[in-house]
Amino acid sequence: MDLTSLLPDSITWVRILLMIVVLVVGWILSRLSRRGVTRLLRRLSGITPTMVTVIARLTGYTIILVSVGIALALLGADIQPLLAVVIVVGVVLILVLRGASENFAAGVLIQSRRTLDVGDEVQIDSPAGAVVGRVLELNARAVVVLSRDGRTIHVPNAKILSDSVVNHSRHGCRRSSVQIRLQVSRNYLESTIRSIGAAIDSAPGVVTTAPSRILIVTMSPSKVTLEGQFWHRPTEDVTVKSAVVKSVFAELDSQGYMATVTSEPGEPPLVPPEAI
């Protein structure tokens, strides 16, 4: 008995064999994609196990649907109406979930590239200006930052990638400076600079493995303005600056100098006043 007589003229055994191969390959790819998506999403914090399962299943079902469509096309079926429905549904989902998908993709890039880590101190732009805070959480939608004044800020992942973000913790140390203005004779300037450097190194929180330095900013016959630069842990700049200011002022006061030590120097005047 010739089995080819049971098939329509447009369908051959070769097409049936190709259809079976397409369906088997599609099933295998769906299983592999579900495993891959599950492993990837489990690396991301902020995604519940239920959401991971749903996304993995949708990925697998999509691949199976595509393989079924290809198999039907090999048999000569008209799949244009099915493709039209799939395209319309896909466009609607993209438009509805555009923001969520952008943030999700950005979250994957942030965590895979290790741009930020939990505990890092970062500086980000906000409607109120630049904000410095510590990263509390990295999730699929946003980066959660706790500012220094106690505000919790949710920054969308897409904004993190598109805008400039300063990571103060990446290097492991951060450099800060204080300004010292004092009346000193040029004959005693070098020894005074050495005393200031020793006072900076003795302040609590200063990292002595990285050398501190004193720079001369301005000089006049009776006054000099210095900048003391030092290193500290990234999240301790406020407390360490305060300790350095107190240490340097105590050292200069013990030597009888009239001095001003500040961690936030203002804009210099066009004509410097005579007094400190």
Automatic annotation (TrEMBL):
Compartmental location: Membrane
Main localization, broad class: membrane
GO molecular function, one term: mechanosensitive monoatomic ion channel activity
Pfam families: MS_channel_1st_1, MS_channel_2nd
Membrane association type: Multi-pass membrane protein
Entries under InterPro entries matching the protein: LSM_dom_sf, MSC_TM_helix, MscS_archaea/bacteria_type, MscS_beta-dom_sf, MscS_channel_2nd, MscS_channel_TM-2
Transmembrane segments: 12-30, 51-73, 79-97
Residue ranges of every copy of the Mechanosensitive ion channel MscS domain listed in the record: 102-170
Protein name (record): Mechanosensitive ion channel
Organism, as annotated: Brevibacterium siliguriense
